[in-house]
Amino acid sequence: xxxxxxxxxxxxxxxxxxxxxxxxxxxxxxxxxxxxxxxxxxxxxxxxxxxxxxxxxxxxxxxxxxxxxxxxxxxxxxxxxxxxxxxxxxxxxxxxxxxxxxxxxxxxxxxxxxxxxxxxxxxxxxxxxxxxxxxxxxxxxxxxxxxxxxxxxxxxxxxxxxxxxxxxxxxxxxxxxxxxxxxxxxxxxxxxxxxxxxxxxxxxxxxxxxxxxxxxxxxxxxxxxxxxxxxxxxxxxxxxxxxxxxxxxxxxxxxxxxxxxxxxxxxxxxxxxxxxxxxxxxxxxxxxxxxxxxxxxxxxxxxxxxxxxxxxxxxxxxxxxxxxxxxxxxxxxxxxxxxxxxxxxxxxxxxxxxxxxxxxxxxxxxxxxxxxxxxxxxxxxxxxxxxxxxxxxxxxxxxxxxxxxxxxxxxxxxxxxxxxxxxxxxxxxxxxxxxxxxxxxxxxxxxxxxxxxxxxxxxxxxxxxxxxxxxxxxxxxxxxxxxxxxxxxxxxxxxxxxxxxxxxxxxxxxxxxxxxxxx
Length: 519
Prior knowledge:
Layout: H1 3-6, H2 14-21, H3 26-33, H4 37-51, E1 54-58, H5 61-71, E2 81-85, H6 105-127, H7 129-139, E3 146-150, E4 154-155, E5 165-166, H8 171-178, H9 193-223, E6 233-237, H10 245-248, H11 255-263, E7 267-272, E8 279-284, E9 287-292, H12 294-300, E10 308-313, H13 318-328, H14 353-357, E11 372-380, H15 382-391, E12 398-406, H16 420-430, E13 437-441, E14 444-447, E15 450-456, E16 469-473, H17 477-487, E17 488-490, H18 498-514
Parallel strand pairs: 1-2, 2-3, 3-6, 6-7, 7-10, 10-11, 11-12, 12-13, 12-14
Antiparallel strand pairs: 4-5, 8-9, 13-16, 14-15, 15-17
């Protein structure tokens, strides 16, 4: 008699069976699927959705080998979101002679395992084996939509308890066998400069390796006339480090592979920081000046098809990001304004050779499809932010601001207790922006060298939603803006006298209506 014929679990309705199985640990869930073939088929869709829709791997032979095996299996069509972790095996110093005797065999085995993983990782990244594995795997994932780079683990793994996180494939095994965590490239200020430089180089290496793998996969799909076009979303989401400027500096011999992918990219997330904005001298109108972030703006100039852009600026000063903001608000490239990012070739010896060898700032693409723009972790003037939004006004429909702080150049002349955010969105409504979604979280405003949080007094709010987060959706922002502006409040310090308060009411309302008249 077939096992299927006597399995009582098959008599349970699928919805009930799925609910029961949600209480099982991962090993128990796997054993349940092994009970019989019919039961495995019944659970396959739920199992695939939980474990093979979104997967995380790291740059190691073991982890990338598993990715390649999955890409050759029946689960290849299920993966739509692939994450590459920045984790890597830690280095161990060579043991002095007098310490080469271990009293604990487990410590000796763990030491050798760490050394072996480190050497394996070095061989992987120095021979190009990692690029080969990634490229082949990406070619085998027909429904891959999003690929990301991260330096953290996402929560949500409810089955097995513990830290409740989804780790990169192979990371838990490494920790279990060595009792040591993998290294994450954190850019802490107290660390040795040589260590930070090494970590920056590694982050840059992973970033460019991912671009090369994506470019090779796209080239393969084009050559084979495959219906698969590859992922259209590239998300670099970092918490303890950021993308260094070196990562954006693409050698000319990589451009034929990488640029076709960038040209068709629809979504780009970047976590930037001080190291993203190194200074180069550029040629500009016959003069020469230092420019912060030239590789970054050159990289962005290769992404004309973007529909969704997120830029986070971790620990950046206003001066570090000023050139990027100026570039974003520059007039777009048009046929009568050719791109001058590279010197003209074939001008003979009449031109200034030195000047021709200096790079030029690329013109800003039209970004005519940019529908959603997210900006976060930055201190900025209202005028700067408004200029960016005005630049993309024809296509812009969704804006998100996270941990953005408003400041003004001359705070001493700014009237007391003026809500810059209310004035800003009042001007947005006045300019008739065609927005459908506004997401705001953890906004602040600087006044008199003090930072004040913005809260939202919204009536129809979930009890669990913090007061410094809000979201507006609709089809008529101009008409609905009043409610959003009224909900924005700042807990100002108490006034010393009624006379000062009266003076504020007079000057403040005048400033509210005239502050943005220069735009």
